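Kindly inspect this chain:
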Amino acid sequence: MASIPSAAPSGTQITRMADADFPTRWGQFRIQGFQRPLTKPNSQGLLVEEAVALIHGDIYSTTPIIRIHSQCLTGDVFHSLRCDCRLQLELALATIVEAGNGIVLYELQEGRGIGLMAKLQAYELQDHGRDTVEANVELGFKPDHRAFELPAAILHYLDVPAVRLMTNNPEKVEALQTHGIEVTERISAEVPPETTFERYLEVKREKMGHLLTAR
């Protein structure tokens, strides 16, 4: 196990917990697990933050494509059509393999950082007419509880100073740049909408500033 170099965001210490071969139906990756201690409990009451890096190809040969993806059990595992999360993840994996190199940074920040049970409670409120932002606020959370220091720290650990970031969320671009990672290009992560999550995308665009096509 190794500690992060001094180039990491100030005060951020991470440990690489594992590094293993990871074949997928998109192509060959390596999977690395990372942890960082927290000085106070996060919104889920945890004192440690974890993330996984799926690394494909030679990430030092050219500026790699990076996708910061927040865990979505309902979408990623159960193929929920309430959101576009699984479709974005699959798009990122396919795009990275096609490009020849890149990293998916998979953060354990379910429900925009509020945790699984709170996310399901938010679903219930959405069934009664709230949108995703209104539901989070009614439960006592911010519209988006995520922070992206850990992905930046992992990129510093891996000695990746510049990236092509695959995202629709300008806050991810700003977060990486704030923590010393140059974003040379933003690649769209927009996927074809399903009728079941059209409103979800509208709220992302209208209330959260995501860079999505108006429909």
